[in-house]
Model the fold of this input.
Amino acid sequence: MADNQNIQVKNEGLSYDTKTLIVVLTLIFAYPVGLILMFMWMKWKTWLKLLIAFPVGLIILAFMGVFAVGLLAVVNPSAQIQKGKCVAECRTFNETSATKIDCVKKCSVQ
Done:
């Protein structure tokens, strides 16, 4: 029994090769998770880690910028305010409803 107490428990964690395989696959298929695992597990040089992270980060920022520009082009707050003012002016007409409708149509075309 005394011999059993002296036996040290072997570390049964993942080997470095297994971690490398997991990191490479997650970098390919689940990039953000792969980045986290790369910085936590891998003992690669820092310049290599940054080299892997930097270009894809720039691409992601570029896509976010394109999305933001597209969203602003669709929403365009100043144009929406201008249309609202135009429609408000159309409501003040005392003429026939057909004239009001034409005025509102002109506002939506602007």
